[in-house]
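Might you be able to review the protein record set out just below?
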Amino acid sequence: MQDLVNFVNILIVLVLLLIFLVFTLLVIVFIKDLLTPKKKEKGVVKEPIKEPAKELANKQVKEIKEIAKEVPKEKPMQKTVPVTNKDKTAIELLKERYAKGDITTDDYKQMKKELDN
């Protein structure tokens, strides 16, 4: 009977030792994971993406690309010098309109007569 009690005590000690070793290994793995730096790309931590989130992200990227195709591309702006009519006289404005072809020769002569008076 004494032998059986000793055997059970030894088994209990061995099981407790085994539990302790497993716990120690788990702690070591956890600490190692905490201390291991994550892969960085241009300052952003890359975490593994879960499949549903990855599918959603891919779908959104496709939608954005489709929308971008529909947006018309703008032409580059041309440099222009603003012209103010405040600094020009009436005769100068009349000459410009005539030079552009906005008014006929008869209209030009008539308006010039009126401005000269």
In short: Residues 1-39 form one domain. The two ends are 141 Å apart (CA to CA). Strands lie at 40-41, 44-45.
